[in-house]
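Journal club side-thread
Mid-discussion, someone asked how the predicted structure for our own chain would compare to the paper's figures. Pasting it here so we can look after the session.
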Amino acid sequence: MIHKLSDVQSTHIGKDTLIWQFCVVLKDAHIGDNCNINANVFIENDVVIGNNVTIKSGVQIWDGLRIEDSVFIGPNVTFTNDFLPRSKQRPDAFLQTTLKKGASIGANSTIIGGITIGEYAMIGAGSVVTKNIGTQELWYGNPVKFKGYVCQCGQKCDTSLQCKNCKERQ
């Protein structure tokens, strides 16, 4: 479903994906199946979004973003893609940022371009992420600091990655 108050120019939209009102999706963007793109989201051209992704309101997905399956992006998360931005000066190439499968980014976080956030990693709300984040790591703060590990279900766990909530070893 694409809301009638959105401007979706891309034909690369997967099955059962919802795009809510006041969204703009440029023509070369690729969005997978069963995604939920909330109101007031802007998605540029050189963007690949996997399946089962949730993007909350107020997010801009700039050129160079690669978002794998089952990623959660909280409201008003900010991405960058140019270390030396200047008005009317386009870089030769935008920085590529990758959000690996199952990663979660908390509301109002800022993600500096050119980094990778690992599988099932979790970034706390309001964080400023300036470096790569590993698999199932929990980071938060400004700048982000390592705070531990999380299970694929999202609960904190120890270095063995043994979850007390779902009893699974990841």
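Post-session note: The chain is about 0% helix and 30% strand.
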